[in-house]
Amino acid sequence: MGEVDIAIVGCVEQLISEKEWYYVRGEADDLFTWHKSRTARGNTVAYLGCKMSLWGDISGYLVRALQEMSKAKCILYIGKTGTLSPDHTPNQTLATGDASCMNGALIKWSNPLKPFIPYSDAIREGVHTTVSSPLVESQAWVEEWQPKCTWVDCEVGHMADAARERGTSFGYLHIVSDRVTDWYPQDLTNEHSLEVTEQRGILFAEIRKVIDRSTAPFNSPGRSALSPNDEAAVPASGTVPTVAALFPAVAIVI
Fold this sequence. Notes:
Elements: E1 6-10, E2 22-23, E3 32-38, E4 44-50, H1 58-70, E5 74-83, E6 94-96, E7 99-102, E8 105-108, E9 123-125, E10 128-130, H2 139-145, E11 151-153, H3 156-165, E12 169-179, H4 194-215, H5 243-246
Parallel strand pairs: 1-4, 1-5, 5-12, 6-9, 7-10, 10-11
Antiparallel strand pairs: 2-3, 3-4, 5-11, 6-12, 7-8
């Protein structure tokens, strides 16, 4: 895939399904596929898709591979999470945060998406917990962790920890897929139903809006990337925060 400034991993096919994908060996049955673009400032962004699910600590190894092989400076993870709060409705809520409990430790980081939370009414912040498997989510487990955390999955802590090892920026923006505290008619058993698919389509549009908002001062309307010849026309950042402004040394644009 080559070097990139920012890599977006996870459920990326719903974000840029109209784009051309590239494969490792040029074959449609390859495990990994990606779409790369270049910004007006000459930086690169890659949407990296994988045909297998990112599960558990393998997600941390993916971060390390992107650091080593692609020199990624920022990694964003788009995925799914369960919630321990009855206040959050599955498939109508987006989750993010800057802390995850894993193996008895609290991992904290600076969330590069935090300035853009106000641009979507669907986003909620909370402390995350990383588990080894959904099978640990018993009633006793819920009673222990519900007062401490809002989100749960098997990957975020591993990815954040790996990102910290080399000072790579990391953030996640997840669709709340199920509620582990009580029964709700939508959960992981019926997530492919038409109703859930339509609701998640709305949330993916919200995710796309957040990404677009973060690049608004740098990209022209309706364009995913600018050519080097357009750089002179790029306006100043103004008062709108951007990912590039948060990382001036990198000057990256999603």
